[in-house]
Amino acid sequence: MTSRASVKTFLATARTALAAPPSKRQTPLTFVVGNESADLDSLCSAILLAYLRTYAPPHTLHIPLCHIPRDDLSLRPEFTSVLRRAGTSPEDVVTLSELPGPESLSPADTHWLLVDHNALTGQLARLYSAQVESCIDHHADEGKVPRDSPLRVIEKTGSCASLVVEQCRDAWDALSTSSSSSSSADEIRAIDTNLAYLGLGPILIDTSNLQNADKTTKSDTDAAAYLESKLKGGAGSVANASASSESYERRSFHDEIAHLKEDITSLSLRDNLRKDYKEWEGAGVRLGTSSVPQDFAFLAKQAGGEDKLAEAIREWAKEKKLGLMAVLTTSAQDGKFKREVLVWAQSEKAVEAAKTFEKQHSEELGLSPWNDGRLDLDEAARIISDATQFVDIAPYIDTGVDPVSFQPVLLDLKCPCCGYHLDVPARVSPNLYPDASLEPMTVLPCGHMIGSHCMDNWIRSRDAEKEPPNCPVCRFELAYKHCGCLIRTPGYNTLLSRAAQLPLTFVEGGAVDHNCGPCRDRRADWALRTWIEEHLPSDRTASSTDASLTRAQQRRLQACVGDVARSARNWHREHSPRW
């Protein structure tokens, strides 16, 4: 690939090579991929580096891969803006959605070059970590890329794109010079202009227009100056190339991209959590981080309240199968830059990790409770006061802790008949109303929770009216179908566990037997006596000469049958519903 093409044509070539049938596909394929958050720096650096390495000797095709599914491109309007200035569009790039599976593209037939990270993460890590050969990155070295790699650059800069420009500057200049023989000067300048925008966009964003002294390095300023020289040489040089020949002014370009990046008002809360998302695994815990360019006050308002924000974060962590979830926010208030962090633990091991993090890094990071700790779910319990069915509180009735989020749960239950508060285990949920009377709780087979006194009065009133007993809420009949006896529902004993006293309700998959226990035993005894009379001759009628069994054998058989019947009744009591 010696003749240079536009960025758009280069991306089309990469997509065609990747989509080729396995029998016709060039191997090994070399991929250039940014980190899993797929921010502007990762996306643009991958395309810029892949282009320059493809057209520089030895002219090996490098496929730039966006580390996100295609649907997630719509969450990055700033990337679309830079692509437009580079003469291409999101429809042209290669994403995870186009990457063939291992059954079609063997990991052994791939080489990987990382930009903006030095350790492969997410779903790619599980397949291709062993194929990582090189990296260009500005983060801390994780020691995953071999030190003898042909290209291993890990230096602190504001933007990874600055390192890409620094590493490829000589090759880029050589391309611009050598290509003039096969392409017109205007075409070369137009291509260089396209590429310059790919580098300038992330550099200006990551260094706050080169004004952030804490982030901006000499590599960033040198790279920006080099790229701007490309724009001065290329702007306006190609007729009708409106995207690449727009007049360039640094602040205007920065402000345009920054506004698109930070304006997340049109995105849903879930979209904001997945837009800049990364994932790692270590010490048996899967960790995910979401970075959001707004503060938690904005997110809470967007969610409709702090409780709903916490629920949305919990659902996102559950969807991604995370043990530990961190939400990192950045914002500016009164001209002052501010960061916030929320750590959400989903397992016992993750809870310990989160507490260790808080203990070890609170002073270093200057951590303090958000909004007087109102979102600190390690301290604030969730109060359940709208539960109408036992299934709503069953997960917490024995422990008082949500088994998924490990958040404390307090139960504030009321009888639907009298409105009195129902008594629940004190070890789980202390009395929230010390001066109020507590009504013993009765749980019905249908799952409704009624005060015991109200239930007794209701049953008596139904009996007086010669009506069958039922649930005062849903009218579920409280009588056994065959024998017609009352289904007795004693009050919930707060000293016992649920398993020791209460079978599954209908909503939980439980059932009611056709007969009550005493009637069931009487029917079993009657069936046993009938069987004995029909199959075992009595002492009065059996002949001592022609009986097939001796009397001693008959007595032993009768005893055995009785034992079997009693065992059957006991098994039935232990394994069938106890309603």
TrEMBL record:
SMART domains: DHHA2. Residues 415-475 form the RING-type domain. One of its GO terms (molecular function) is zinc ion binding. GO terms for cellular component: cytoplasm. It holds the Pfam family DHHA2. InterPro entries: DDH_dom, DHH_sf, DHHA2, DHHA2_dom_sf, Znf_RING, Znf_RING/FYVE/PHD. Its cofactor is Mn(2+). It comes from the Eukaryota. SUPFAM superfamilies: DHH phosphoesterases, RING/U-box. PANTHER family: BNIP - RELATED (PTHR12112), EG:152A3.5 PROTEIN (FBGN0003116_PN PROTEIN) (PTHR12112:SF39). This is RING-type domain-containing protein. It comes from Apiospora kogelbergensis.
